[in-house]
Amino acid sequence: MGLGCEKRRLVVIGGGVAGSLIAKSLQFHADLTLIDQKEYFEIPWASLRTMVEPSVGERSVINHRDYLTNARIITSSAINISETEVLTGEGRLVPYDYLVIATGHTDPTIPKTRTERLKQYKEENEKIDLASSILIVGGGPTGVELAAEIAVDFPDKKLTLVHNGSRLLQFIGQKASDKTLNWLASKKVEVMLEKSVSLDNISNGNSTSYRTSDGETLNADCHFLCTAKSLGSTWLKHTVLESNLDSYGRLMVDENLRVKGNQTRIFGTETCFSGCKELEIVNGRRKRKQTGNIQTSFSKGNCITWEKGCSGTITIHNHYWKCSWID
Ligand SMILES: Cc1cc2nc3c(=O)[nH]c(=O)nc-3n(C[C@H](O)[C@H](O)[C@H](O)COP(=O)(O)OP(=O)(O)OC[C@H]3O[C@@H](n4cnc5c(N)ncnc54)[C@H](O)[C@@H]3O)c2cc1C
Q1: What region holds the FAD/NAD(P)-binding domain (predicted)?
Q2: 48 lines ligand 1 (CB under 6 A)
């Protein structure tokens, strides 16, 4: 950066995989502010392992402050934006030259601090530990992965997985669904397809009674709800980006992740795609390429320099189950 040049103000909203990677990569090239609802980054695909082995959380839940040494961190929700500023839930106006919206998905049950998150994992682990029978609602990746984690570490628990679709993991092929079903069956997990469970009127006795959509009663000591999380872009509905949302409320971006339309300084990450697309797209090569695009566009302003290519902070291998964080 040349003398007398002001660094461009980059605001990143959302401290998930995309937002944290972008913030970490660009913190020395911009005047950077990260706005996230929570104080920490968490590796999402370690979360279900952490429920059965809480010590994993010590490594997978990382305070933003620990890797963002040259950035401002605001722990709050973004609730509105204008062409030049972001408004946070606590009433702060944060000016920007460039904006990255990486709000992916949102979950109101996730606590604000790392300490509370680790405590939550311990409580979930105790819940599993104390139960003899467990009901898992939802047969997408989260429900299947949680069932697998519990089945492996707690083989004596009676596990039931109820899914309203005709097959597990519907976003991938039939062969993978069949393999998954067979594997769970081999671990004695009872899988009920094309059924749903109402969690409104559950009755408590020695164990809890749940009623399925076809009137059957299921007894289990506890349950875990593993259905889809809410989209993190709904807050954009009444903002200047209202017309940039698709019919599902997802932010539409072009191939360079620029918000579609006439915005050249606002970027959205791929979580504006849903479900399978999201999983398919988050692989190392693609992720680095896309972050690279943001860096390229961002560097077009005066006085911004950055080293070509991504410095490889998070590597998500092209294999669904593996990831690593590289400093
Ligand atoms: C259990 C599980 C296992 C997974 N396994 C894999 C896997 O093995 N491999 C793989 O590639 N992918 C996997 N995924 C998917 C992967 O985690 C997602 O694709 C990825 O997290 C998307 O990253 P993101 O940063 O775009 O969004 P998110 O991770 O959803 O992050 C969004 C961030 O924005 C914040 N936020 C939301 N709204 C606001 C707001 N208004 N203001 C401020 N902050 C806000 C949230 O607090 C959060 O920090 C898995 C997901 C889960 C849940």
Answers
A1: 9-267
A2: yes
